[in-house]
Amino acid sequence: MTAEFAASDADAKPLWLVRDELPGALDGAARGWAEACGFDGSAGQLCLLSDGSGGLAGALFGMGKPDGKAGRERFFLAKAAVALPEGAWRIETWPDGVDRSEAALAWLLAQYAFGRYRKADGAKARLVPPEGVDAPRLIAMAEAEFLTRDLINTPASDMGPDALEEAARALAGRHGFAVEVIAGDDLLDRNFPMIHAVGRASAQAPRLIELRRGESGPALTLVGKGVCFDTGGLDIKPAAGMKLMKKDMGGAATVLGLAQMLVATGAAEGMRLRVLIPAVENAISGAAFRPGDILTSRKGLTVEVNNTDAEGRLVLADAMAYGAEAEPDWLVTMATLTGAARVALGPDLPPFYCDDDAAAAAIQAAGLAQCDPVWRMPFWAPYEAMIEPGIADLDNAPAGGMAGSVTAALFLRRFAAGAAHYAHFDIYGWQPSAAPGRTQGGVQQGARALLAALPELLAR
């Protein structure tokens, strides 16, 4: 779906953002009406204003105290976009502390609705782009987010490995990527044994999807976990654990959204951009891989499978090793990888891992500036022993259950050798309940942070 601002401000109605005092521009009748309605600028309060002849003259929207609810919630102004009547609106007043770009992006994000299976509408009010904002860039961000949300929200019945490949090919066609897909037993012939092992039990063949764009400049390789549904394999999840497993391809959805964003904003120009997606379903059949199996990865490292439900790191490892062989400047993984990350930081704040202190600081700062927060966690070297089982080089699911996100990141880092820099994002990819600008369901995390930080990262 598309995101849009108002085409013109010619017929736009004024919207006053109010903290405590009514704007001085209000005439006496409007001021009296607002006071009669009990409007006091409380956070989220809306007051529509009449033109005196049955028409709409404008509206007041409460922002509350700077340290109150509006200050705590990202994209707070999306509440106004949803509440206002259809039509064009322009913001007349900007209280201290209200960021214009965030407000405009919030308004765009409020337009999202997932309507594949029933009619659904997002906000119908359209905002005149505030002075000083980069409207095309914000539209590109919002539309990339919509792509990611649509992919995650689509159930596995319509978003298996076949459909994920189709989505990647569609994006490639729109934005000038070359595409290569290696599927089924060809994965074995081309030395992707762990992708094959995880996906071979499914009715849809496992595959590695590769997109490439650009012939010169710094190289950025994005690897996204594409587990289209995760039963847990033979270590089967309980029913409650499978309920959200259509989102286990959230890493793939996020790197596709980010790739679109990079092209649409012009950031992909002058770089070699590569996207790798191991697309599988972790299913159960006589061909399923088993607990206790030892797999030999593309890199040659052997991996003891101590839990078939820790499959994401296996498919990522083969794709990462392949990506690292080209020695990119940056290798970035995005994956809905561990429940431990959610226990540590909750659904809103995905952890990321990066050995480069300055780069990590740039990513974290960019995330805060773009309302796309991420939090750095450590590649804690003393825990390396936890992923070394003795019978093989690596253990995909260390016993004990401690430091699960850290040990998963350490596991992945073993396959990043060759890349000049590596960062891993352990995202959730899901909004458990509706929030301003974010409907319940799939959500993009970390992509805007990376977009904003990339100029500094690629200069390193």
From TrEMBL:
Assigned GO CC terms: cytoplasm
GO biological process: proteolysis
Keyword NAD among UniProt keywords: no
PROSITE patterns, A to Z: CYTOSOL_AP (PS00631)
GO molecular function ontology, one term from the record: manganese ion binding
InterPro entries (UniProt xref): Leucine_aapep/pepB (IPR011356), Macro_dom-like (IPR043472), Peptidase_M17_C (IPR000819), Peptidase_M17_N_1 (IPR048816)
Limits of the Cytosol aminopeptidase domain: 307-314
Keywords in alphabetical order: Aminopeptidase, Hydrolase, Manganese, Protease
Matching Gene3D superfamilies: Leucine Aminopeptidase, subunit E, domain 1, Zn peptidases
Record flagged with keyword Nucleus: no
Family, similarity comment: Belongs to the peptidase M17 family.
Name the record gives this protein: Leucyl aminopeptidase
